[in-house]
Amino acid sequence: MRLNVIILLLLFAGMLFGQTRRIVLLEEATNASCGPCAYYNPGLQQFYAQHFGGVISVRYHAWWPGNDPMYQSAKDDCVNRIHYYNINGVPNYVMDGKLEGVPASISAMQNQMEERLSIPSPLKLHVKAQFDDDSVKARITLIVVDTVKATKLFLRVAVTQRMVSYANPPGSNGEKDFGEVLRKMLPTAMGTGLNTLSVGDTLNFRFSTPVKNDWDSGDLGVVAWVQSDATKEILQSALHFPTTIITDPNPDITILTATQSSDVPYFIFNDTPDTVHVTLMLKNKNAPNDWHFNLKANNTINSEIPLEILPGDTAYFSLQVQAGQRGTGELTIFSQNDDDDGFYSEGYGYGYSVVFSGLVPQNSDILLIDDDGGAGYEKNFTKILDAHNYDYICLAENYLDTLAKCTDLNQYKLIIWNASWAFPVFTPSDVRLLSDYLKKGGNALLFGQDVAWDVFDPAGESHFAEAESLMQNYFSVRFLEDNSKGTKLLGIESDPISHGLSFELERPYGFNNLMPDAIEPLSGAQPVFKYNTDKIGAIRFDGGNFRTIIYGISFEEIEGDANREAVLLRSIDWATGVTALESKEMIPGQTALLPNYPNPFNPSTTIHYTINVPGKTQVNLAVYNVLGQKVRQVVQAKQASGEYKITLNASDLPSGLYFCRLKTGTGFSAVRKMILMR
Predict the structure, then answer these.
(1) For the purposes of burial, counting CB atoms within 10 Å of the CB of 125, is it exposed (0-12), middle (13-18) or buried (19 or more)?
(2) What is the C-alpha to C-alpha distance for residues 600 and 617, in angstroms, rounded to an integer?
């Protein structure tokens, strides 16, 4: 198997080496007195620093809404480039010549970059620069390696200052540090026209410019790109020092076996004419404590490994993963560019990142779907699940298909779907998998602002018949309106989830972006919460062999940690059929399996048991037929002292005698007879 992996990796690398790696140009219009710029620019800079080599950048400073000395320093060139893209608001960013709008989403920028990286370029660009105290000299080599179909081509060259920093904000928005600031276009913003390009052509260009007084000659850069004025598409770009990227032959999630080791392969191909130097690092580990990671390259095993890669050579390395008993493991593999000569050759620590995601499908009760578009709100769930010792998997929505192909989703007692405020809420595959899971007896919680709107409104991205059917048949919900105008959720007396709860709604997406859905229960469903406008904000539905709850708000819109914890824990208990009546007055005197009621039953009965242990113990509650075959796993989880009542629905079982067995980690075991009578 290991030999096969190596062979496939070599074949994959060989295919890539026959192509020309594209370097994507990230351009931005910004301003030092623009409030939204101060809000969004840190995210754009974070994306850039973590994907350097996949993208390089030039930033244009605008003449509005207020003062900006970096605009004053390069007026004509900034005006030309901003008008070139018809930009009329800041901040706005451009990816390889396509205006994308406000840089509000790091994940969106990454997707746009990766889409462009997947398209080989017909051109190679090599940039060399000489920075003196009084001048900048640049040499550009353009090599045509494939047929060029684009027309009206121009070579454009920019001198940038890698980072402009001020002791005090130069504008009114509070920003003091500005990356990749345009200082001068060479020879002008129009660029140099390119005649018809033929395969095999090699063109050389030289440019120079004086250094102005407000430039820092020890922190300058030169960026070159070839652009079609017919479409504005950028065919290729390059920087004055070499860059590389990490190639992941299998960017999907890696399915692992509990407690087993795996080597996950990666490589870096040096397609530049220079020797490159990088340092591999592991960052942002997010995994259970029994998961372990290391890098392996050149017979070295460590969490940080420096590499030197000669021109045309490839550095192969692997991530060594020791999986734990359960859960998901995620970390970032970062290749720091050690050839960065910014800030007097100290460099900025930029580099290219790939994210490893691994999963052990077994040994977990809850599947948490992270569908928030990369916003990170899943941490609100995982913090609570960790605190209460739930065994769970947190899975990005785009990996759900992969998981479903290798395991039965119905091994999970509950799916929690965190849609947050991201779209689409569902893909057709999501709907098919979730519908099938619920049909077979699964349970689900669905949190998200505008979930119902996205499914039922014609403008929604999840507006298709199968999604509507999922909402109607399995969540028993009708959509009333996009904005209930509610600012508070109020519990309903005697409801098993919301009784005694009420809370204000937070505004995590900005003050004007609170738009909680107004929804209505269909036949058989019950309201869980109402807004302070008396409209319904959450609905629960017992479908017989499945249970669902849908919230018209996102989880992060629930005010306060205590309220979020109460809502989630009560929702989990109700959806999974567990009622834990835990209080100081109700802790039982002993662990016991009490008689179920009714008995005989058709088709549902309540299983009643008590736990009395210090801390928590592993509880296993299962139902067997007269042949000793397990027909239902009812509980397999750690539980604290308390009284528990669980509804067992046996509508899919034949009439007859059954046995309910309770076992705990303390050695307790008890059996009760149950009679299912049709």
Answers:
(1) buried
(2) 30
In angstroms, the CA 183 to CA 215 distance is 8
Question: What kind and span of H or E run contains 13?
Answer: helix 2-17
Q: What are the start and end residues of each CATH 2.60.40.2550 domain in the chain?
A: 592-676
Residue 39: enclosing H or E segment and its boundaries?
Answer: helix 35-50
Q: 413: pLDDT confidence band, cut at 50, 70 and 90?
A: very high
Dihedral sign (CA 400, 405, 407, 411): positive
Q: What are phi and psi of 240, to 5 degrees?
A: -75, -5
Write the CA distances from 270 to 59, 123, 131, 242, 245, integer angstroms: 27, 16, 25, 9, 9
CB 275 within 8 A of CB 308: yes
| Sign of the CA dihedral with 439 first, then 440, 445, and 448 last | negative
Q: Is 630 exposed, middle or buried (0-12, 13-18, 19+ CB in 10 A)?
A: exposed
CATH assignment of 246-360, among 1.10.220.30, 2.40.440.10, 3.40.109.10, 2.60.40.10: 2.60.40.10
397: nearest Cα among 378, 371, 419, 417: 371
Fold of 592-676: Immunoglobulin-like (2.60.40)
- Check: pTM over 0.85? Answer yes or no: no
Q: Is the peptide bond before 508 cis (omega within 30 degrees of 0)?
A: no
Q: Tell me the sheet residues that pair with 138.
A: 129, 207
Residue 399: how many other CB atoms lie within 10 Å: 18
**Nearest partner of 669 among 580, 589, 592, 590, judged by Cα:** 592
**CA–CA separation, 161 vs 262, rounded Å?**
43
Tokens standing for residue 131: 């920075």
Q: Could you count the other beta carbons within 10 Å of the beta carbon of residue 275? A: 13
Angle (nearest 5°) at CA 569 between 535 and 456: 40
Residues 315, 297: Cα–Cα separation, whole Å: 8
What are 263-314's pLDDT values in tens digits? Answer: 999 999 999 999 999 999 999 999 999 999 999 999 999 999 999 999 999 9
Cα torsion 630, 633, 635, 637: sign: positive
pLDDT band at 677 (very low <50, low <70, confident <90, very high): confident
221 Cβ partners below 8 Å, 6+ apart?
129, 159, 160, 161, 162, 180, 239, 240, 342
* Kind of pairing between the strands at 24-30 and 55-61: parallel
Structural contact between residues 515 and 466, judged by C-beta atoms closer than 8 angstroms: no
pLDDT of residue 454 exceeding 50: yes
Coil, strand or helix: which one is 312?
A: coil
pLDDT tens digit string along 322-362? Answer: 999 999 999 999 999 999 999 998 999 999 999 999 999 99
Maximum Cα–Cα distance for the chain, whole Å? 95
* Residue spans in the chain of domains classed CATH 2.60.40.10: 24-240, 246-360
- CATH class for the region spanning 366-576: alpha beta
Tell me the per-residue pLDDT of 435-453, one tens digit each, with 9 for 90 and over: 999 999 999 999 999 999 9
Give pLDDT, residue 589: 66
Superfamily name with CATH number, domain 24-240? Immunoglobulins (2.60.40.10)
pLDDT at residue 315 above 70?
A: yes
Confidence of residue 2 (pLDDT cuts 50, 70, 90): very low
Structure tokens at 419: 């849609």
The pLDDT tens digits for 558-582 are 999 999 999 999 999 999 986 543 3
